[in-house]
Specification:
7-stranded mixed beta sheet; TIM Barrel; 16 helices; Immunoglobulin-like; 3 domains; 29% helix; 679 residues; binds beta-D-galactopyranose; Rossmann fold
């Protein structure tokens, strides 16, 4: 069983000079002459780290037990000769066709029994002992062959574990799920109690009767669904650990990671519980082209990654130079966007900027996905951007190892996400990521830096703690939030928080259960709204999606509903607690109302934006070199101008990108970036 929040990683960063720069490199798709040119062009671009071998299993072991390493030996030697380090994959991210042909029992299944076949990628069930065995063998072969190769700086286990198959409902999964449940509950009686199986004749008499929540006539047991989500995340982690342990045994000198998918789009892996098993945290992030504020979601993803990394520098393992190939319409990046995207990750703690992929494929499903070197070759803007980014990263060398500091914590929790969006709830319209982003966006636009932290984290020292829609919460995690308020923080809790315990049992006596006393309110009934329906508040602002029939039990009403069935009842409340305060918001505030409340909270908490007078659409983040908190000389101010106008931002120091000095302010051109070493 996975501990929820083990120690953050020890951050054994791969040994590359300066910030790492590069991408996925798939040389097996190209003739040797092209591979030779690759190294020359990588040198031109300043590339110093590439991920190799991710999807190479079928080329490395074309027939069972017969290996062909010649081509990879040559690739690694060539990269080494060119001074480029390698994040070497275990090559296990996609089983070769001979393996699924001989062992179709390794294939994963959907909830409706559909077996997912070979022909794409990731066609394996991590709980298949047969697959595990083959993957372990391949990993050992890779470690033994390449563990002493001087190019290898990092192990890259599998690839985006759970990307395509976060949940597998196969018989292998059923067996492993039962084992996991036995470890969690000990007895079937304990499982029955936790799952509330007195309901709908679901009582189990033995673990053997339990199944994954496969397609059923109606709603599957919610605790079964949650435990299956927990199990599935743990099972992927268990697979990672098994492969990682082989690597540690054979090559203890090389750090190990796998690329996570930390964003508002990936729900099913509880990455906070994975963190302690990675030597360094690596993340893949792709902009959603339809989102006009995709760059704000990017910032959230980067802050979340830093949270998973426990504040340590992390690797941006993949993003795109321009278009992707997997969205309905794949938008090309605008001039300046790729540099801004890259440096936004660096601003928020990345010490490596990497892409999918080095050279754009000529064949296969990803041939229309951009790369560092596009189909059209080097006389292209994409290539010029690649070279310019390499140059920028070299100039940012001094930033390496510095840290981001924040006065604001936003509590983010994967099991709460799973729980909040379960079926058979008061509304089907609630989206956890929207509830989180509503507040993150307010803070982003004010230039306030946020640490995204797991439920249960120690919140001491934060001045403002935001707890959006934390549907399920343990007693311990609820107490951490209360302790923050008692010791002087302003705490904001929003609707549908604290409702259930970790087994999805309602905390009785009135909502919001676990936070009722802290907030000094009691809700007797939820009043979800129709799609598009709006509720007026007494200051003329509005809310939507959700409302509640709430009574004050110690708090004061800051805003009340105006009109309708809840007329005069509290919508926003404040409860003085110790030297701090606990605020509750029982509806989804529209922007105006959320904006007013954010201002009030920042003022009360004494949180200042990173710089004063920040122009709209401009992102600012500061990284601090190790040292005393007030050591301004060792600070780097990142200014990212996402607007079409030139802007000025107050700061004094040297712009590392241009070498120019900023006296009192830096001018950043439209769509441009400045990184000022202050002092
Ligand atoms: C990632 C994956 C890469 C590539 C990329 C395309 O999910 O790890 O191999 O497919 O997406 O955007």
């Amino acid at each position: 069983m996975t501990a929820r929040h083990p120690e953050p990683p020890t951050a054994r960063f791969p040994a590359v000079p300066g910030l790492a720069y590069g991408g996925d490199y798939n040389p097996e798709q190209w003739p040797v002459a092209t591979q030779i040119e690759d190294v020359e062009l990588m040198q031109q671009a300043g590339v110093n780290l590439v991920s190799v071998g991710i999807f190479s299993w079928a080329m490395l072991e074309p027939r069972e037990g017969e290996h062909d390493f010649g081509w990879l030996d040559a690739v690694l030697d060539r990269l080494h000769a060119g001074g480029i380090r390698v994040a070497l994959a275990t090559a296990t991210a996609s089983p070769p066709p001979w393996l699924t042909r001989h062992h179709p029992e390794i294939l994963p299944e959907l909830a409706d029994g559909t077996v997912l076949g070979q022909g794409g990628r990731q066609a394996y069930a991590v709980s298949s002992p047969v697959f595990r065995d083959y993957a372990l063998r391949m990993t050992r072969v890779m470690a033994e062959r390449y563990g002493q190769h001087p190019a290898v700086a990092l192990w890259h286990v599998d690839n985006e574990l759970g990307c395509h198959v976060p949940h597998d409902y196969s018989e292998n999964a059923a067996v492993a799920f039962r084992r996991w449940l036995e470890a969690r509950y000990g007895t079937v009686e304990a499982l029955d109690a936790a799952w509330g199986t007195a309901f709908w004749s679901q009582r189990y008499d033995s673990f053997d009767e339990v199944l994954p929540p496969r397609a059923a006539p109606t709603y599957a047991n919610p605790t079964q669904q949650l435990d299956f989500a927990r199990f599935s995340s743990d099972e992927l982690l268990t697979h990672y650990r098994a492969l990682r342990d082989v690597l540690r045994e054979v090559t203890p000198h090389i750090p190990t990671t796998t690329n996570l998918m930390l964003s508002t789009g990936t729900k099913w892996m509880d990455y906070f519980s994975w963190a302690g098993d990675l030597d360094v945290v690596a993340n893949d992030h792709y902009l959603r082209a339809r989102d006009p504020e995709g760059h704000v979601e990017l910032s959230f993803s980067a802050d979340l990654t830093r949270g998973v990394a426990g504040g340590a520098p992390w690797i941006l393992m993949e993003h795109s130079t321009s278009a992707v190939n997997w969205q309905p319409r794949n938008r090309t990046k605008a001039p300046g966007e790729m540099l801004r995207n890259s440096l936004a990750h660096v601003a928020r703690g990345a010490d490596a900027v990497m892409f999918f992929q080095w050279r754009q494929s000529a064949a296969g499903a990803e041939k229309y996905h951009s790369a560092m070197l596009p189909h059209a070759g080097t006389d292209t803007d994409v290539w010029r951007n690649t070279v310019a980014l390499g140059d920028a990263l070299r100039r940012l060398d001094p930033v390496k190892g510095s840290r981001v500091r924040a006065d604001v914590a936003l509590v983010f929790d994967y099991p709460a996400w799973w729980g909040a969006e379960l079926d058979s709830h008061p509304t089907q319209d609630l989206r956890y990521a929207d509830a989180v982003m509503a507040w993150y966006r307010q803070l982003w636009h004010r230039g306030v830096t946020v640490d995204v932290v797991p439920a249960g984290a120690d919140l001491t020292g934060y001045r403002l703690v935001v707890v959006p829609t934390l549907y399920s919460v343990t007693d311990d995690a609820a107490e951490r939030v209360a302790a923050a308020a008692r010791s002087g923080a302003s705490v904001l809790v929003t609707y549908f928080s604290g409702i259930v315990d970790e087994h999805d049992h309602v905390r009785l006596g009135g909502y919001p259960g676990a936070f009722r006393d802290l907030l000094g309110v009691r809700t007797e009934e939820f009043w979800p709204l129709d799609a598009g329906e709006r509720l007026a508040l007494d200051d003329g602002t509005t809310g939507g999606l959700w409302s509640e029939k709430t009574h004050l039990t110690g708090a004061e009403a800051v805003r009340t509903y105006a009109g309708g069935a809840l007329d005069g009842l509290p919508a926003v409340t404040r409860h003085g607690v110790g030297s701090g305060a606990a605020w509750y918001v029982g509806t989804r505030l529209d922007d105006d109302a959320a904006s007013r409340l954010t201002d009030a909270l920042l003022t009360e908490a004494g949180v200042a934006p990173t710089v004063d007078a920040l122009p709209a659409g401009v992102e600012v983040v500061r990284r601090h070199a190790a040292g005393p908190v007030d050591d301004a000389a060792a600070a780097f101010l990142f200014v990212l101008n996402h607007t079409a106008q030139d802007v000025t931002v107050p700061v004094t120091g040297v712009d590392l990108l241009t070498g120019g000095r900023a006296e009192g302010e830096v001018r950043v051109p439209a769509h441009g970036v400045a990184v000022v070493q202050e002092g």
